[in-house]
Amino acid sequence: MAPNPPNYKMYAAGSVAFVVSFVTFKLLRFTLSKRQTEPADLLDAVKKLEGLEDQNVRTAFSKARYQKALKKKNGEDFDVVFVGGGLGTLACAAALARTGKKCLLLEQGDQLGGGAHVFSVPGGFEFETGVHYLGNDIKMEKLLNFLSCGRLVLDGIGTPIPDAIFQASSDQLDMAEGQPAKGAEKTSMMYDQIVIDGENFPFVAGKENLRTMLKARFPAQTDHVKIDAFFKVLDDFSGTKVQEQVTMFFRLKCVSLLSMWLRDKLQRLLCGSFLKYAHMTSEDMLRHCDIDPESKLGMVVLGQYGDAGMRPDKASALIQLGVMLHYMEGSTYPRGGSGAIPRKLNNVILAAGGKSFVHARCTELLFNDSSTPTCIGVKVNGVTDIFAKTIVSGIGVGRTYRDLIATHVDKRISAMAVQPLERIYKKPENCENSVAFIFLFVGLDVTNQPSSERDDRNHNTWYYPDFPDGLDGYTKMEQRVYGKDGEGAGEPWSRPMPYFAASGSSKDSIYSEKFPGKKTVVILSQCPWDWVKEWQDIPKAEREKNSDYQKFKQQTEDFLMENCFRKTFPKLEKYVVHKSIGTPLSTNTWLGTDEGECYGQGLTPQHLHLPDMIPTSNVKNLFMTGQDVCTLGVSGAMNAGYITANAIAGFGCWENAILQGDLVLSLGLPGII
Ligand SMILES: Cc1cc2nc3c(=O)[nH]c(=O)nc-3n(C[C@H](O)[C@H](O)[C@H](O)COP(=O)(O)OP(=O)(O)OC[C@H]3O[C@@H](n4cnc5c(N)ncnc54)[C@H](O)[C@@H]3O)c2cc1C
Questions:
Q1: Domain boundaries along the sequence of the chain
Q2: Which InterPro entries does the UniProt record give (predicted)?
Q3: Cβ(641)–Cβ(92) under 8 Å?
């Protein structure tokens, strides 16, 4: 008798049933295992810390204090240790604290916050350093609300100006010079004022308002076609398709087991519409809309390019469009100033049993000696070893590898482990630093100021100097002012400089309760590293006594007062009681940077694809966060923190890529992203 033919159909059905049950089982197990619970009474504990928050962001590290903190935890290590206390690590730690994780933050500076930190000077002034405004951005608000347990308030800011001003086709109408519009029939909120070659361009809340302003100022039909093409790009970029791809792009960054090659291929395959913009420079994006970047229209459209951290011929269009959309519906500011963000997030970390220290410089990462490099802790200030199962660095991807890994590779890790480490720490060298700024901080006593001299402007001014030979765009402007690519810059302050001016005290709705009769102004201008590098090796205390450095600072102060402060705030000089200068060397001190770069690695089209700019790393137990991992800015750094928290909480796996779960949802809360 002939044997029965094999029943292929049955085999196939059996295999399919097996695969389906296996996947269902895995997905079900994943869903159940990822349910999180919040510590009971977390919110009450957060509220109790509110009177102490200013001192809690400045607890100095000592071995004795650290051991006391451990004792409170019955000698157990912290769940997660963070290198750096910027917004990226604070956001990551606060998100994990909401699931009951006990986090330890180690910050080298004298307070938490990184770019969001503030400083006080005698006489009753508190100055913001690296956060001048936030967007009226619902996703960011939801995230901040989650991270702060709902304790951070954002107030809308901006100067109301008559609609007639931004709708006027000529610039004959005066801009509201520091005074909010009174009696005008209809007003809108101006958050940024762009001044090019003496002409004012108000950026007011609302996409259609921006379009109206641009069309009124550039009335030629040919320009209207270009403006509409630009708004088509904005609409496309902010549309559902691209925004879903943005989420997918960053979700794929989280999936830890993907090889770099496969991650890159999947991102290119699934996120093409988003990557189209990420791969262009800001200037290319303008050309795509037929707008010449050297024309006045091109310069107005890119008027906020300083927020993108790089020249528009280098920055990715992703960040330029992202910045514009972030502020498109207007702008906000934290109640209590930019320092309120680190204070409120730190409260959540402490309330969940965590701890944070300043003056705690991490000098190396600790590894166990195995063929798979495994991070087991950090060394603080060169002497104290701190151990944990999970270590997160928020000091920049390149710097983590260079400062905390590479220099210790030989003595700490076996030869087998060296190769993958070398590969990862060398990669970020392909990048370029973002811009460095020089700061003038001005404190005013306006106690006896008559109302006729008040200046209640609540917006930022971006001022671009006169162009004697005609407009030729920001790239050539920068090359003229700072030299080619920042090198060979001319004598300091020998040429007119672009600058940014803002008053933090006017934006903080409770500043006058804390500091009655006081007003602050901050002026920023770019600073070529060449101008200050001769003093880089002198310790800070000695530098402050160095006569050449002091001469440079005095020259800077005189220039910025004469050419920037007086121009923007003509009625206020007689009320000035405090002036101080911060240089890129100051930024190196308070942000631990190399050349005063204010936004980490520059966000070039190449940056986004560098395989190491991800929350996970080739080193076991070591995670990355902060602006390098996502995008720059408060929103970018905090999103990076949230992404990393998701990767740590176990959402960086293929099951999650299918189910699209995340940390907030696993707590039973409404979704954020
Ligand atoms: C002048 C300026 C203006 C800005 N304006 C705005 C704005 O208006 N709106 C906006 O959204 N964004 C703005 N930004 C950007 C925003 O502040 C940053 O993008 C954001 O704060 C970056 O957060 P981060 O945590 O990634 O990095 P950082 O803030 O740089 O934090 C890194 C932290 O790590 C610490 N650190 C470094 N090395 C070590 C070490 N070895 N051990 C321990 N600690 C270490 C540093 O001291 C720092 O505190 C501005 C930035 C600057 C500088």
A1: 42-118+337-431+601-666, 207-327, 437-526+533-582
A2: FAD/NAD-bd_sf, Retinol_saturase
A3: yes
Helix axis angle for 340-351 and 87-97, nearest 10°, is 30
In angstroms, the CA 321 to CA 279 distance is: 13
130 lines ligand 1 (CB under 6 A): yes
Gap from CA of 385 to ligand 1 centroid (Å):
25
Q: pLDDT for 420-441, tens place per residue?
A: 555 555 555 557 889 999 999 9
Mutation to probe ligand 1, out of 144, 627, 644 (largest number of atoms < 8 A from CB): 627
Q: Whose CA is nearest to atom 8 of ligand 1?
A: 132
Residues 6+ apart with CB under 8 A from 479: 485
**pLDDT at residue 408, as a whole number:** 65
Give the tens place of pLDDT for each residue, 224-235.
999 999 999 999
Give the strand pairing for 390-393 and 622-624: parallel
Q: Which helix (H) or strand (E) holds 379?
A: strand 374-380
CA pair distance 137, 325, nearest whole angstrom: 9
- Whose structure tokens read 């004469």? 562
Q: What are the strands of the beta sheet with 362-368, ordered from one edge? A: 362-368, 374-380, 384-387
Cα separation, 183 vs 573, in Å, equals: 28
83 lines ligand 1 (CB under 6 A): yes
d(C-alpha 128, C-alpha 117), whole Å: 7
Contact 363, 379 (CB under 8 A): yes
Going from the C-alpha of 203 to that of each of 137, 160, 224, 275, 537, the distances in angstroms are 16, 11, 17, 27, 42
Alpha helices in 138-220 (DSSP H): 138-147, 163-167, 207-217
Partners of 390 in the β-ladder:
80
Please tell me the distance from the alpha carbon of residue 146 to that of residue 437, in angstroms, as a whole number: 32
Q: For residue 181, how many C-alpha atoms fall within 13 Å in the half-sphere facing its CB?
A: 20
- Kindly report the CATH number that applies to the domain delimited by 42-118+337-431+601-666: 3.50.50.60
Residue 46 is encoded by which pair of tokens?
A: 């957060």
CA–CA dist 562, 661 (Å, integer): 55
Q: Exposure string (b/e) for 380-414, b if CB count within 10 Å is 16 or more?
A: beeebebebebbbbbbbbbbbbbbbbbebbeebbe
**How confident is the model over 237-261, as pLDDT tens digits?**
999 999 999 988 888 887 766 677 8
Phi, psi for 78 (deg, rounded to 5) = -70, 155
- The DSSP line for 337-378 is -TTHHHHHHHHHHHHTT-EEEBS--EEEEEEE-SSS-EEEEE
Kindly report the three-state secondary structure assignment for every residue of 464-528: ECCCCCCCCHHHHHHHHHHCHHHCCCCCCCCCCCCEEEECHHHHCCCHHHHCCCEEEEEEEEECC
Cβ-contact 173, 213 below 8 angstroms:
no
How confident is residue 416, by pLDDT bands cut at 50, 70 and 90?
very low
Ligand 1 center to 598 CA (angstroms): 7
Contact 321, 277 (CB under 8 A): yes
**How far apart are alpha carbons 616 and 51 in whole angstroms?**
36
pLDDT score, position 583? 97
Is the distance from the beta carbon of residue 108 to the nearest atom of ligand 1 less than 6 Å?
Answer: yes
- The span from the CA of 87 to the CA of 59, in Å, is 17
Residue nearest to atom 5 of ligand 1 (CA): 131
Rounded CA gap, 336 and 630, in Å?
A: 27
Q: Which residues pair with 121 in a beta bridge?
A: 125
